[in-house]
Write a sequence for this structure.
């Protein structure tokens, strides 16, 4: 028995003598946290440091998820557990590529995982795109969700009709926020300034426009149902758009079939309350807010107002579809149609940007070329999330994708591909670099002070939290 204990003690000594692999994750959104979580769970000795350019963690869970979807934000509870692990550390307020370079991180860590997401949006590339009244969905979502860089957006909501270009969940989120009754939004963590702007909004009609047809929409049934059931807003769908689709989706995958059936049902129904609302409108009562889906229209040009100072509409090329299903292509027919509106929101996708010239980058697809998260041609460098696979999918997709990258890293550790014999200083080295450049990182316990301040402010206003939108104010709260 004593001999067995001695052998066990010897084994412990030997295993503790092996250097701990130091891993650095760049980005503290879902991809970063899920990657860290998987590494910590499946390697008992690994040390993981997470770097984030903002003083606050959680990325798109904080700045992308709609304020009226609080249940989706519950994943931050899991991320918090990860960050509180004694083998994990969070360093906010550090911009990789400026405050510390990627080669410096590679000197400090055995492995580096790039999980910094999509920090830009795809552009339409059409005349008039830069006119006042035209905004990217990314900036608009950032504005109502408190992303510091979008706080000066001040969107003009003085028009009656808004046009959203895109048929994804983000497009539906924006439409819902524009048309939601204020009493619903007041109970969310939407920012104070955007709530004030929405209170003065004149927008009462929102069109969501896509290049392809009903069978190619990218939103999901949950978001569509939520929009259909939005109080005080009616759906305007043209039955002609759905002719013959019931037979076309008979053999489609179940989610696509159910989604299409819901659109058909909504298009063909004229509920009693809608008829009553139409009668009330004819009698001079205020017409309800409304929204609708327009298909097979591709934006050609944002039309300027008479004085050329702002957007007054969008010229659309009418399209026909070649092929079927998800691979169907929209081809212009030659016909055009002008859609009048005073607010244009482009929701055609987010886009990742290159971080460092040393990292290969496919600028056409906006991703880092990789194989199961291993960056091509750069041993010891990995990527996860949107910068790995493109800006698609929901949080669960990102979770699985990040676990896949973490698994590649663990396999490389086990197979000796990652050499952990040279000890690495990790944050010790980075700290001295940051100090020499006058950068003070924000720890996770610092974030918890900011979090407590936001929750306290929210409680006073009857909200779950009141987000602080100015990074300088965040740093002031923690005494930086």
């Amino acid at each position: 028995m004593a001999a067995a204990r001695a052998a066990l003690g010897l084994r412990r000594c030997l295993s503790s003598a092996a250097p701990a692999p130091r891993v650095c994750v760049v980005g503290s959104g879902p991809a970063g946290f899920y990657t860290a979580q998987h590494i910590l769970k499946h390697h008992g000795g690994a040390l993981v440091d997470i770097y984030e350019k903002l003083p606050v963690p959680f990325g798109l869970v904080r700045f992308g998820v709609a304020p009226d979807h609080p249940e989706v934000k519950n994943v931050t509870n899991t991320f918090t557990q990860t960050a509180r692990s004694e083998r994990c550390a969070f360093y906010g307020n550090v911009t990789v590529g400026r405050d510390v370079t990627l080669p410096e991180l590679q000197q400090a860590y055995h492995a580096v995982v790039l999980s910094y997401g999509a920090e830009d949006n795809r552009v339409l590339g059409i005349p008039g795109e830069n006119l006042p009244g035209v905004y990217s969905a990314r900036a608009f979502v950032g504005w109502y969700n408190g992303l510091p860089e979008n706080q000066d957006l001040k969107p003009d909501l003085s028009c009656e009709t808004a046009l959203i270009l895109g048929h994804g969940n983000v497009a539906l989120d924006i439409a819902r926020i524009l048309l939601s009754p204020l009493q619903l939004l007041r109970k969310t963590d939407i920012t104070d300034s955007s709530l004030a702007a929405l209170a003065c909004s004149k927008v009462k009609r929102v069109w969501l426009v896509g290049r392809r047809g009903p069978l190619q929409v990218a939103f999901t049934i949950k978001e569509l149902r939520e929009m259909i059931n939005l109080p005080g807003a009616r759906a305007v769908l043209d039955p002609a758009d759905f002719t013959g689709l019931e037979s076309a989706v008979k053999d489609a995958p179940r989610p696509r079939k159910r989604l299409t059936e819901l659109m058909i049902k909504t298009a063909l129904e004229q509920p009693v309350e809608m008829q009553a609302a139409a009668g009330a409108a004819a009698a001079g009562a205020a017409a309800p807010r409304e929204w609708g889906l327009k298909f097979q229209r591709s934006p050609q040009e944002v039309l300027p107002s008479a004085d050329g100072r702002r957007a007054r509409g969008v010229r659309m090329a009418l399209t026909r579809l070649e092929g079927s299903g998800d691979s169907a292509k929209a081809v212009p027919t030659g016909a055009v149609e002008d859609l009048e509106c005073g607010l244009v929101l482009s929701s055609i996708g987010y886009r990742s940007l290159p971080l460092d010239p040393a990292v290969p980058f496919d600028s056409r697809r906006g991703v880092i070329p990789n194989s199961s998260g291993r960056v091509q041609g750069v041993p010891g460098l990995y990527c996860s999330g949107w910068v790995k696979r493109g800006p698609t999918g929901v949080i669960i997709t990102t979770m699985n994708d990040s676990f896949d990258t973490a698994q590649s890293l663990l396999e490389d550790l086990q197979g000796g591909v990652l050499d952990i014999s040279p000890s690495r200083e990790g944050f010790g080295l980075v700290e001295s670099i940051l100090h020499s450049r006058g950068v003070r990182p924000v720890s996770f316990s610092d974030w918890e002070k900011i979090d407590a301040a936001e929750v306290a402010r929210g409680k006073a206003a009857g909200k779950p939290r009141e987000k602080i939108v100015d990074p300088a104010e965040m740093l002031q709260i923690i005494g930086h």
Residues 63 and 145 are 5 Å apart (CA to CA). The two ends are 55 Å apart (CA to CA). The first helix runs from residue 2 to 17.
